[in-house]
Amino acid sequence: MFRLALSSLRLRKGSFAATFLNVFLGATILMAFSSLFDTGMADGVSSQDKKTLTTMCYVVDGWGVLIVAFGIAATLNLTVRQRSNEIALLKSAGAVPGQITRMIIGETAVVTLLAAVLAVPVGYLAGNAVVETLISNNQVAEGTDYEFGLMALSMGLGVTFLAAAIAAYVTGRRASTVSTREALVSSAAGTTKMTKKRIGFGILFLLLGTDAAVLVPTVLKDRGYLTMSIAGEACIHVSIGLALLSPILLRVASALVGGVIRGFGGTPAYLAQANIRQRSGRMAGVLMPIILFVGMAAGSLYMQVIQNDAVSSGRLVRSQDDKNVETLNFVIVSTIAVFAAIVLINLAVTATVYRRREFGQQRLIGSTPSQVVRTVTFESVITVVTGLIAGTVAALASIIPFSLATADEAIPDAGPQIYVAVVAIVVVLTFAANIGATRKTLREPPLEALAAAV
């Protein structure tokens, strides 16, 4: 099966390029911030600098591993679902579930190893840039030598490979246990079911986020760094929980938002609603990074604004830890934002290009290219609206409790500028990726699209 995996890699370079890019970026992030531990543990580093560097390493790596693994899993899940027909044919030819699982793991292992190794020099440069930034902000003493050692390599290579292997095993196991008939029907109709495990994990993360949100204004009020840290966990947990339940959210949104846009969108809007209702599992892949981006970016940035207002008004006294937390917030937000944005573009383009056969069929029965583009546009509207609502709920899970704990008011006087900027980024990225990929796919003649997609 490993030889088959290598053949599959050669024939599906475009699909595996999405996984390669996610792994490459994830390994780069983990290496860059893990190297702060190596730098902090070097000889001659003061205890305060050591605390600053290692704390940043622990926080970013802790959530970084989870977010990177989530991004890799989402990409693998999408690419494997797109191959359900191929997997069904392998099973009908005599392949057993274990062989299919090993094939998917083998493909992922080759891509992950290549991406992680190529990420080493980039991770080194990124980590060095972070240390230089800390020095320029007077958070680390001048003359601190940057180190890129065992911790950086073990996290970048080992943890990334382990996360990808687990994601590949879970995805492959699920694909291999689907019956041949069900896989063929799913491939033709685009229908997929959410597993009980996925629903269970989604509910679990929502409960963890709710628990953190309740603790912040009650037990952890006025506890400084700890208050902000737990408030941040509320946002992250709720974001992940809603992202896991994204197919359900899309179905609900297609029923509500779809009914509105059908009033003025005509046939393209009707098709968009039908497509999302039927293919919610596949289209939810694009929704996940939107929820993560909006929830974590808006939540973290608004918490920092609340913290700064409390310091400027005299309610809080700014300490060195507070300054470190502020840097951490911006670092985490920027890191997650870049990663989520690239995952969003990656998944949107991959999902849209895969639909070349569908687009070809629509054009052969009379749809014009502009009608196909309008259909994808309405799909993007439903997806973006769903992601913005879910992401806003996740952000509020941190903002409201932290505002109550810090300023004794549920809604902070922070202005809409941050939220508007986050929304604008999501809208631009989603529509540019979906519509751009659709227009490029439509340049291919319908018959050629059908032949190439077989």
Automatic annotation (TrEMBL):
Keyword Electron transport tagged: no
Location(s), subcellular: Cell membrane
ABC3 transporter permease C-terminal domain sequence ranges: 65-170, 332-446
The keyword ATP-binding is assigned to this record: no
InterPro entries in alphabetical order: ABC3_permease_C, Macrolide_Exporter_MacB
Name of one Pfam family that matches: FtsX
Transmembrane segments: 20-42, 62-80, 100-126, 146-171, 199-220, 240-265, 286-307, 327-354, 381-405, 417-437
Primary subcellular site in the record, as a coarse category: membrane
Keywords recorded for this protein, A-Z: Cell membrane, Membrane, Transmembrane, Transmembrane helix
Membrane topology: Multi-pass membrane protein
PANTHER family: ABC TRANSPORTER PERMEASE YTRF (PTHR30572:SF4), MEMBRANE COMPONENT OF TRANSPORTER-RELATED (PTHR30572)
Family membership noted in the UniProt record: Belongs to the ABC-4 integral membrane protein family.
Protein's name according to its UniProt entry: FtsX-like permease family protein
Native species: Kitasatospora phosalacinea
